Amino acid sequence: MPETLSARDKIVKYLGENDISFADIATMYGLAKQDVGDYLSGRKKNPAGNKLIIRIISDFKIR
């Protein structure tokens, strides 16, 4: 599985700068808040987490 640290860091920074909470992301993507937090912190690393990270980057145009 590819390493997602830099992508996760960019997402967390973007969310903070735009006052978007993990709960907001969880609601938007139909996930549990805990799962979003685990994926974005790196506690949970699996294909579903990678897909979420890629989708958030794409949907929010994070570069």
Q: How are the SSEs ordered, and which strands pair?
A:
Layout: H1 5-17, H2 22-29, H3 33-41, H4 47-60
Description:
The chain is mostly helical. It has helices at residues 5-17, 22-29, 33-41, 47-60. The longest helix is centred in the C-terminal third of the chain and has 14 residues, at 47-60. The protein is globular, with a radius of gyration of 10 Å. The relative contact order is 0.21.
Please summarize the sheet with the most strands.
none
Shape: globular
How much of the sequence lies in strands comes to under 5%
- Report how far apart the termini are: 21 Å
Give unreliable regions as ranges.
Answer: none
- Summed up, the helix count is 4
Mean pLDDT, as a whole number? 95
How much helix is in the residues? 55-70%
> How many structural domains are formed by the residues?
1
Oligomer kind: single chain
Number of distinct beta strands: 0
